[in-house]
Amino acid sequence: MHGNVLLLSQRRISDLVAFCLAYEFEDTFQAVTGAERIDATDLPSIEFSRRAYKLARMATGSSRTALRLVPPPRSAVVLERDYELFFPVFSNAFELYSLATIPAWRRRCRKAACFITEVWTDQLPDYLLELLSGFDHIFLGLRHCVDDVARITGRPCSYLPLATDVLRFAPAALDQPRPIDVCNIGRRSAVTHQALLADAERRNCFYYYDTVAASGSDLKQRTFRVDNAAEHRKMLAAILKHSRFFIANRSHVNNPEFTAGRDEISARFYEGVAAGTAMIGEAPRTDEFKRQFDWPDAVIHLPFDSPDIADILADLNREPARLQAVRAPARPDRLAGVASYLSTRRSTRSRFHSRLHCVSHRKVNALPKHMVNEFLKLSGSGPTAQLLAVTASISEADTA
């Protein structure tokens, strides 16, 4: 399938720091499959077309009629050849209308699958999710919304855990120096932050934290825009693999009114374990998290508001053997746990087959060894490699 894959990216119109994870996935995907990447551009034109489509959809009651009535965005691309697979990646459901950038995607692509990294059940725009009805399979980065998205789209949906570039984040050596004492980025507790500031000043140690202003209607977010997603991921990887402790919490930990008990696994946990840093924080209270991170002290519990964090860290530092075990990165047993949302410890090749079958709907007897090795070399054995195998091997599956 090399070169016969079409990838749609949002990187030129959506540059928030949180979306860099999706673009890292796309880069690995493209490196493995040789995919042709089309970047959505001209956001004002896409938004104008989306609003017109929404009105037409409401007036006609038909998504197909609305799509025929509304002209595509000015930046629409005309495909000049056919592809084996179309694979767009979205950071949220509100990006879905960028599919209009490639009006003939379904006619030109034999198979189609997509990945949406974050979707919450109370933020499901039906008129946009309907646009996914032409896909063969939909992958979602959050688990709780799978059934709802399947109901709205009428298409098979699967939970696909987030992942990170293991080779980029892994330290050069287990015992390399970690000059950053604590890394605390993204959503944070003001109580814990102030305590860490005081402790860092008292001990003259390096506490790394965001200085960007709080944002969002509730001022609970800390986000910013980036010029280059790959450069940001390299910098984040460098920070984490030189950090002793990393505060990692479940998604939207400081907004329980929004999550309403729907605990989800944030990307922080995959980044932390790949970097071999000791993760402290509030982990998701779910069986799924326990299946993926199934070793002792995967995340050392730290209440979100911890005014006594200095004492907690001091106690942990008095247990060097425990911290050494916690920080061991890329151990085979840990990668196996993080790699798959399947509860059984099947081989990497079997996990590849499971995901491939979602899209191909055909039995696969063997995945070429060189393909497995290439996936592992480029992206470790995480869920990224699983999805790469789905897309890169789909043409082989149909002839197996």
Structure description:
There is one protein chain. With 400 residues, this protein is an alpha/beta fold. The protein has two domains: 155 residues, 3-Layer(aba) Sandwich (Rossmann fold); 170 residues, Rossmann fold, CATH 3.40.50. Helices cover 42% and strands 13% of the residues. It contains 19 helices and eleven strands. It has a six-stranded parallel beta sheet with strand order 2-1-3-4-5-6, sandwiched between helices. A five-stranded parallel beta sheet has the order 8-7-9-10-11, with helices on both faces. Helix 17 crosses helix 18. About 14% of the residues have low confidence.
For the sheet with most strands, the description reads: 6 strands, parallel
Percentage of β-strand residues: 5-15%
CATH architecture descriptor of the largest domain: 3-Layer(aba) Sandwich
Label the structural class: alpha/beta
Q: Can you describe this structure in just a few lines?
A:
The protein has 400 residues and is of the alpha/beta class.
Tags for this model:
11 strands; six-stranded parallel β-sheet; 19 helices; alpha/beta; 400 residues; Rossmann fold; 2 domains; 42% helix; five-stranded parallel β-sheet
List the helices and strands and how they pair.
Elements: E1 5-9, H1 20-33, E2 36-39, H2 43-60, H3 63-69, E3 83-90, H4 105-108, E4 109-116, H5 126-129, E5 137-140, H6 146-153, E6 157-159, H7 166-169, E7 180-184, H8 190-203, E8 206-209, H9 229-240, E9 243-247, H10 256-259, H11 267-275, E10 278-281, H12 287-292, E11 300-301, H13 309-317, H14 320-326, H15 332-339, H16 348-360, H17 369-379, H18 383-392, H19 394-397
